[in-house]
Amino acid sequence: MQISIGQIIEIIYQDKARNISQRKIEIHSIRDGRIRASCLTTGTPRMFLAANILSWQPVQEKRHA
After folding, report:
1. Which of 40, 43, 51, 55 is nearest to 15 (CA)?
2. 14 lies in which domain range?
3. What is the residue-averaged pLDDT of the chain?
4. Total domains, the chain
5. Is residue 34 in some structural domain?
6. Do the domain assignments include residue 64?
7. Region 44-51: what's the mean pLDDT?
8. pLDDT tens across 35-44, in order?
9. Does a structural domain hold residue 1?
10. CA-to-CA distance for 52 and 34, rounded, in angstroms?
11. What is the C-alpha to C-alpha distance for residues 49 and 2, in angstroms, rounded to an integer?
12. What pLDDT, on a 0 to 100 scale, did the predictor assign at position 7?
């Protein structure tokens, strides 16, 4: 699987203090191992190191009937 700009994904992330969190993010840019995204949990812009993403999966869009 590949991450692309505009995609919403759910990640499990370990920060530099070794805290682990799970979040949904919308990807804005990917450059030099850094992912700039909006955290959909907090509504804030964030920068994530790709090497610190432990797991990720695309978020399935809800379809309305």
Report:
1. 51
2. 7-58
3. 91
4. 1
5. yes
6. no
7. 96
8. 999 999 889 9
9. no
10. 10
11. 16
12. 95
| pTM for the full predicted model | 0.83
- Extended beta strands in the chain, E state: 8-14, 20-31, 34-39, 45-49, 53-58
Q: What pLDDT was estimated at residue 37?
A: 98
- pLDDT, tens digit, 9 for 90 and up, residues 12-25: 999 999 999 999 99
Q: Of 34, 24, 30, 15, which Cα lies nearest the Cα of 58? A: 24
> Across-strand partners of 24?
10
36 has which bridge partners? 29, 47
CA–CA distance, 12 with 57 (Å, rounded to integer): 9
Within-domain flag for 35 = yes
What are the Cα distances from residue 26, in Å, to 5, 15, 34, 47? 8, 18, 14, 11
Q: What is the CATH number of the domain that holds 19?
A: 2.30.30
CB 13 within 8 A of CB 24: no
What pLDDT shows up at residue 61? 67
